[in-house]
Amino acid sequence: MELDILLTLQTAGRDFINPKRIRLLEQIREQGSISRGAKAAGVSYKFAWDAVADMNALAGRPLVSRETGGKGGGGARLTGYGERLLNIYRLLNQIEAMAVAAVQDERVSLDSLLSVVSRMGLQTSARNQLIGRVEQLNPNDISHKVSVRLENGDLIHADITERSARRLKLETGKEVLALVKAPWVQLACASEAPSEARDNRLYGTLVGIDQGAEFDEYRIALAGDEPLCALVSRIGPPATSFRIGEPLVARFAPDQVILATLE
Amino acid sequence: MELDILLTLQTAGRDFINPKRIRLLEQIREQGSISRGAKAAGVSYKFAWDAVADMNALAGRPLVSRETGGKGGGGARLTGYGERLLNIYRLLNQIEAMAVAAVQDERVSLDSLLSVVSRMGLQTSARNQLIGRVEQLNPNDISHKVSVRLENGDLIHADITERSARRLKLETGKEVLALVKAPWVQLACASEAPSEARDNRLYGTLVGIDQGAEFDEYRIALAGDEPLCALVSRIGPPATSFRIGEPLVARFAPDQVILATLE
DNA sequence: CCTGGTTATATAAAATTTTATATAGCGTTT
DNA sequence: AAACGCTATATAAAATTTTATATAACCAGG
């Protein structure tokens, strides 16, 4: 379904800005007067004049400066503040359009605002974005260790500075997004003994390989079909070859995890 | 100014969902019938019935399932799809509220959608977020080298995989956000000779020091007052002491830069 | 088979929003 | 001093939205 977004901003229960007023403001800017702007926007002069007076009053400072008399009888122009509001409105609409697109994606969890925002079009070069909740905080070490319980039940650890933990207002139960760059993810057979006890270890099965010029991309399905992506360099000694369907363990260091959270 | 956000979704020029209809849907869920829901929402029964029929028709599948007759005369309940739409609407409103808050921040550039989105409440443990435009792409190396021109004129480089560059649809002129973790930024006197030619080198002046238990936070003002933050461990050999106002150079490795972009 | 409270539907009335129209005042230009 | 084309303001008319009211149909349960 094609959805158009109409955004209205109210203050004290009265419309401050709505689509119709925005169209009017645009036409006033274009035409240089309220009367011509009203005609161009397809509304009556009274409607236009009332709208302008109302907006100016609600904002406390004018969006439209008006002059009576003079050459051409006077006229009206947008103030810098009026121009700024048009910009803001345009931006808010674009953001809402991204949000609507994100929300129509069946994969996003509607229970999680973070899930929507993280898929709202902000792509990072960090390939893996895992959503979970803070399960434990260890403020004792030099690097603050954060345990994050993913939605599929897996547990991962992130090392961040104590200062960052404070800044993100991390606390048990808070929802976080863990960013892990694909080149930092290493793969091994699931049966292999742990070599680095400190590493995160996520078990899954190989579901796809994409061969590139310099890197091979391995797509792994974790528990609950949570996707994970690893990039393995083809330069240097040839990697162990894995087969589709094979159970694997994906490893990455806690200090390479970036956490993101809302507010 | 306190702004309330009213969101309306239209399709084919007709209202699909608007605040009044949302209030109605909520009350129908609460009350178990259209007539009681209408009363609770403060609208007439005809208005409510028309709205429900209209929404069901526009969506192509029912938001509200209705039954006539039976014990209690029948009733109406939200379908799963109806519940989902309520969730979506709630989320969209929250996102828009974040956007409105971000946009009221005088610091954000209204010319840049990316600037707004990046400040829309998504905090990362990567302390430095620098906005700029791609100036050059070097697709030849193993690691794709991306040159980013910041708004203040500075130039930085990021090493990312060729695959990521494709995924982000990087091209000259595209706006990007560079994430750099504060612990990865190293400081030196501005006069000091470059030790690692590959590193990014940004010149600025020290404007503040925040002493912590394990890390000292140095705040640097780059050209155009662009802020940069470096964390220096207090463990190990004591760092050179810098003075407020002193010109410094901040260095960080290109492969530690994460790029983010929209779409 | 009757009752109750609902859905379903239609029509008229009321309320609200928007337009149409008219007129006064303004200040530069001719 | 007159003309011009606008702002500023008011009032009535028109259009649209919403409510009020009425009535038929529905169907499990007493």
Automatic annotation (TrEMBL), chains A, B:
One of its GO terms (molecular function) is molybdenum ion binding. The keyword Ligase does not apply. GO terms for biological process: molybdate ion transport. It comes from the Bacteria. SUPFAM superfamilies: MOP-like (SSF50331), Winged helix' DNA-binding domain (SSF46785). Residues 123-189 form the Mop domain. InterPro entries: LysR_HTH_N, Mo/tungstate-bd_C_term_dom, ModE, ModE-bd_N, Molybdate_resp_trans_reg, Mop_domain, Transp-assoc_OB_typ1, WH-like_DNA-bd_sf. Residues 124-132 are annotated as: Required for dimer formation and molybdate binding. Gene3D superfamilies: 2.40.50.100, Winged helix-like DNA-binding domain superfamily/Winged helix DNA-binding domain. Keywords: Molybdenum, Repeat, Transport. Belongs to the ModE family. PANTHER family: DNA-BINDING TRANSCRIPTIONAL DUAL REGULATOR MODE (PTHR30432:SF1), TRANSCRIPTIONAL REGULATOR MODE (PTHR30432). This is Molybdenum-dependent transcriptional regulator. It comes from Marinobacterium nitratireducens.
